[in-house]
Amino acid sequence: MGQPVAGNPTQYMMEKAFAAARLDWRYLTLEVSPADLADAVRGMRAMGFRGANFTIPHKVAVLPLLDSLSEAAGLMGAVNCVVRDEQRLVGENTDGKGFVASLQTQLDPKGKRIVVLGAGGAARAIAVELGLSGAARIDIVNRSLAKAQELSQLLTEKVKVESEALEWKGDFVAGEGVEIVVNATSVGLGDAEARVPLDLSSLAVGSLVADVVFNPPRTRLIVEAAERGLKTLDGLGMLVNQAVIGFKNWTGIDPDAGVMRDALEEFLEL
Ligand code: NDP
After folding, report:
1. Is the pTM of this model over 0.90?
2. Of 14, 119, 121, 107, nearest to 61 (Cα)?
């Protein structure tokens, strides 16, 4: 459920995965306005939905309509995935877990010094989950300093990870020892030429640059980081992995992640 949600690739990806797992299940893309959200959640209870994903603008508004929250969803104050446990609806957040699962194919965040660019919903989910995965330090860089400070405070006080909030002015220069930089802003979304203000020369060889933007997946940031010989991680991996976690939460079955990534690439005509 979201608004606008037309064109979202998740239904296509999930239904391919249901078919591959021989499950006669359906995943529906539902356009729901904020005014109708409470009725829609009552409707999913009444109709016995196994679960749901919630996207913009419902990730925070859905919280009071649920019966309980996972630890991560509670810390983030945002839910993107709901699972029905008998008659109770449990809120989970799989965005950050999907990112960490994707990252772990290349680097373990444990003990690493990380910079997250952005302080919106995606940044919040990613930073909390990186903290829960044992990152040594997570600095938050954002245009609006107040939002960076709020997230940084959450990290130090609730997730117990070292963190500093920095105002984003000009090209961000990564400090010594930073091994992972994540673009968690919307810069690059739908625009392959858009430049994330980051001084890539400040990153040492062996560092990794990740982008949450998945359309297009080859963002300017990813292309330029790869040209410099840095490790890269595109946003498709996060999208596939959060869907893999949702699928498992609802069905109890591990889906074929390869089928899901292929479906996504087919849908996005990559
Ligand atoms: P929000 O609106 O919550 O946050 C947007 C963030 O981007 C804010 O930190 C904002 O800064 C920053 N920002 C926007 N424009 C600029 C700019 N021109 N320069 C610098 N900073 C900018 O959005 P979300 O966090 O929900 O989404 C962010 C991105 O993550 C989107 O592109 C979305 O598609 C992607 N995403 C990808 C997922 C995946 O699975 N790959 C999952 C979820 C999201 P400020 O606070 O100063 O306005």
Report:
1. yes
2. 121
